[in-house]
């Protein structure tokens, strides 16, 4: 378990929002996303970046809403906005409270997740110089967040007994930031190769700027190739980017588990039957994950978590391209293909 500064997992090194004196903090609020759980350490960061993009472009809160995040796989504490910045996690209660999100949804209160939350709480208490109130999101807003199990655990004093991460979060050895290039090429060259392989580097295109969209594209490329997903352009990543598109064969690709109850269900219009999940009433973060994946592959789609004409149109085009059943519905096969089929 370690403390991971925001600049090491993909957020800006500094955060412009209003600072809060530690003396004004009185509570520590636990949240969840309610969506899919991460599969591994790299998936924790992928989900955090998805949260950041959603908060930046859809909810318009300025980016990642939480002061801290905790990974249920690693127990790592990820710095979000930071302990001294106003969050956007709990309407009307952001100044007095430090907010932490346990990544994922049902089933994410693992032993590692519990210990990470305890350590995050200990870190927050040390920062403020006092014992903060242990709160679930539903204690300060009308919401079901963070689920019954986590809320009960928090109310029972589950946050007590943590240890502040030693050494400022350093895990020893060399550390690189996502987006670092270690092979002597320019950002422009990396972007050119990403575009050649069919990845979306953001609305400004090839601009020689290592922004969050380019880092996301690097991570998606690494994920597709079955190599370490760290957002760093090292020799292996550059070697695969340098290959002729279509010749750098992916290995060991794995799609995240289909998030709906069974293979008879699908993401589709809200006017459909019970098995048609539109994102308007549930599973919005899951549909947003598929949409973001398609955006990372180069499709022009807004990852808003809602099934509409744009999502249907892209699903149809994708199904035709990959020779899947063409119905515009995102069932188990269309879901998996977004990860396992090559980018063309």
UniProtKB/TrEMBL annotation:
Lineage, highest ranks first: Bacteria, Bacillati, Actinomycetota, Actinomycetes, Micrococcales
Record's protein name: N-acetylmuramoyl-L-alanine amidase
Family membership: Belongs to the N-acetylmuramoyl-L-alanine amidase 2 family.
Signal peptide: none
Domain (Peptidoglycan recognition protein family): residue spans on this chain: 1-141
A Pfam family matched in the record: PG_binding_1
CDD domains according to UniProt: PGRP
């Amino acid at each position: 378990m370690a403390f991971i500064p925001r600049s090491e997992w993909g957020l800006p090194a500094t955060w412009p929002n209003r600072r809060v004196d530690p003396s004004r903090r009185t509570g520590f609020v636990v949240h969840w996303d309610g969506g899919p759980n991460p599969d591994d350490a790299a998936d924790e960061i992928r989900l955090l970046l998805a949260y950041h993009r959603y908060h930046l472009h859809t909810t318009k809160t300025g980016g990642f809403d939480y002061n801290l995040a905790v990974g249920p796989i690693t127990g790592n504490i990820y710095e979000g906005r930071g302990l001294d910045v106003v969050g956007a996690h709990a309407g009307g209660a952001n100044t007095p409270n430090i907010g932490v999100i346990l990544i994922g949804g049902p089933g994410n209160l693992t032993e590692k997740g519990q210990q990470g939350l305890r350590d995050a709480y200990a870190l927050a208490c040390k920062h403020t110089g006092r014992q903060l109130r242990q709160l679930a999101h539903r204690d300060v807003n009308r919401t079901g967040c963070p689920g019954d199990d986590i809320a009960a655990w928090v109310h029972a004093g589950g946050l007590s007994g943590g240890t502040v991460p030693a050494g400022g979060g350093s895990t020893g050895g060399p550390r690189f930031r996502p987006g670092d290039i270690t092979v002597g090429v320019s950002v422009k060259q990396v972007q050119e190769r990403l575009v050649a392989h069919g990845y979306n580097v953001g609305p400004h295109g090839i601009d020689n700027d290592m922004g969050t969209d380019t880092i996301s594209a690097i991570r998606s490329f690494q994920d597709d190739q079955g190599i370490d997903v760290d957002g760093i352009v090292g020799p292996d990543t550059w070697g695969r980017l340098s290959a002729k598109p279509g010749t750098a064969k992916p290995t060991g690709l794995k799609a995240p588990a289909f998030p709906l109850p069974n293979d008879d269900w699908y993401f589709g219009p809200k006017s459909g039957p019970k098995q048609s999940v539109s994102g308007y009433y549930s599973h919005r973060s899951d549909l947003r994950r598929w949409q973001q994946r398609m955006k990372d592959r180069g499709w022009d789609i807004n990852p808003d978590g809602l099934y509409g004409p744009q999502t249907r149109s892209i699903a149809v085009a994708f199904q035709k391209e990959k020779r899947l059943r063409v119905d515009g519905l995102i069932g188990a096969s269309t879901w998996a293909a977004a990860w396992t089929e090559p980018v063309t």
